[in-house]
Amino acid sequence: MPAFTYKAKTAAGLVLEGVVDAEEQRVAMEKLRSQKLVVLELIEKTASPIDQIRNLLGIKKRKGKVTSKDLVLFSRQLSTLVSAGVPIVQSLGILETQAENPAFKEVLGDVKSDIEAGLSISDALRKHGHAFPELYTSMVKAGELGGILDTILERLTVYLESSEALKAKVKSAMMYPAIVLSICGLVTVFLMVFVIPTFKNIFAGFGAELPLPTQILIDISDAMKARWYLIVAAPIVAYKGFLKFYGTPFGRKWVDNKSLIVPIFGPILKKVAVARFTRTLGTLIKSGVPIMQALDTVAATAGNVVIAEAVMMTRESIREGGHLSDPLKKSGIFPNMVTSMISVGEETGALDIMLAKIADFYDQEVDTEVKGLTSLIEPIVIVIMGIIIGTIVIAMFMPMFGLGELAGKQG
User: Fold this and answer.
1) Does the domain at residues 3-132 carry the CATH identifier 1.10.760?
2) Contact by Cβ (8 Å): 128, 110
């Protein structure tokens, strides 16, 4: 179906740009006008060469999945539209027409239809749990009940952007060593499978006994060549096995617990968990979500079973009349500074503010740790690569040194 790029103005004076799918320009114009938009510009979008080939072959474009970036952009735009006084159904219609992700476009169309049919906004969003997490729908519900949906959407946007930034920092710390170690592994496999056999043929003509390191390396090379399929299958089997183990309750708890105490990466992951917990809980409480429901949501979105269990223990403590800080301190996961600040927040009635300050502090801590880790890992990885490659090279040249000594004695 043809697509048209448009520039239009809302009744509140906001200028919007996007893409609308329609059979012809007249239909596109009617679609935009039905959303109470004043069309300023409407131009047919030229299909890319890849899309043209797909159309000729009759191949439908895959819808894909709703990403966190889609959700952040949607929240920011919806917040702007609602704040400007645009009705929610009209806002969703506008965002549906300009959504680039086909999967998200379909979700927004369904949400819009459900709201028009009489469903509340939160209930309509909750029907699409793959796109809108429990945290999102809980906050939207609080915004509906409190009549502050625009404010809640703004807070949601800030929260999602902070979470994405935190996730990006951790990924950047893991990406460099993963890439370098992968390259190191590929180079090692190449040397063992293709280079060392050439040296083996050369050494065979010497008629002398090979040094032990050289013989071991050649034996490993022969085994790798004879069973090359194991090299290909081993990483896949290991990954599948890990997923299966992690899929069990015991496996997930074991991995999540070890991830928080493993050297080098453990402290960073723990700080990420603390930042995520405090940011999520603080945002929910500030948005008016009841504390019990907020803790349920935090536990469900913790991403770590050990953290989730600590949160549920906290929930039980509060249900029995206890404090938030005491069970968190008993869990041994949260630092004393965190539990002390939460305790002060409870006593002063400013828990949401204190949680936000803790989250900001740990965001900065993670940033500092990631930078330090990156500068630490780089030389370590280079040393590891040097040791592996150097060992192979020395082992291959050791027989040549022996031949040189033998020739000197004969001379």
Assistant:
1) no
2) yes
> Distance (Å, rounded) from C-alpha 171 to C-alpha 165?
10
Six token digits for residue 234: 């081993």
Amino acid occupying residue 282:
G
- Number of C-beta neighbours around residue 315 at 10 A: 20
Q: Which amino acid is at 389?
A: I
Residue burial 120-148, b: 16+ Cβ < 10 Å; e: rest:
ebbbbbbebeebbbbbbbbbbbbbbeeee
Distance CA 201, CA 214 (A): 13
Q: 42 forms bridges with which residues in the sheet?
A: 6
- Taking only the tens place, the pLDDT of each residue in 187-234 is 888 888 888 888 777 777 666 677 788 888 888 888 888 887 887 788
What does the alpha-carbon distance between residue 165 and residue 142 come to, in Å, rounded to a whole number? 25
φ, ψ of residue 72 to 5 degrees: the values are: -65, -45
Q: Regarding predicted confidence, which is higher, 10 or 280?
A: 280
Strand order in the sheet with 38-45: 15-21, 3-9, 38-45
Q: Which two tokens stand for residue 221?
A: 């090379």
**Residue 354, both tokens:** 């204190």
Question: What's the pLDDT score for residue 122?
Answer: 86
Cα angle, residue 20 at apex, residues 17 and 21 outer, rounded to 5°: 165
Segment holding 191, helix H or strand E: none
DSSP state of 9: E
Predicted confidence band of residue 56 (pLDDT cuts 50, 70, 90): low
DSSP 186-221: HHHHHIIIIIHHHHHHHHHTT-SPPPHHHHHHHHHH
Q: Are 299 and 282 in contact (CB under 8 A)?
A: no
Q: Is residue 355 a contact partner of residue 155, using CB atoms and an 8 Å limit?
A: no
Indicate if 166-411 has the same CATH topology as 3-132: yes
Q: What is the DSSP letter of 63?
A: -
Domain limits of the chain? 3-132, 166-411
DSSP 186: H
Percent of the chain with pLDDT over 70: 90
In angstroms, rounded to a whole number, what is the distance separating the alpha carbons of residues 282 and 247? 30
Homologous superfamily of 166-411? Type II secretion system (T2SS), domain F (1.20.81.30)
Instruction: Give the three-state DSSP class for 372.
Output: helix
Question: 140-191 pLDDT, tens per residue?
Answer: 888 887 778 888 888 888 888 887 887 777 777 677 777 877 888 888 888 8
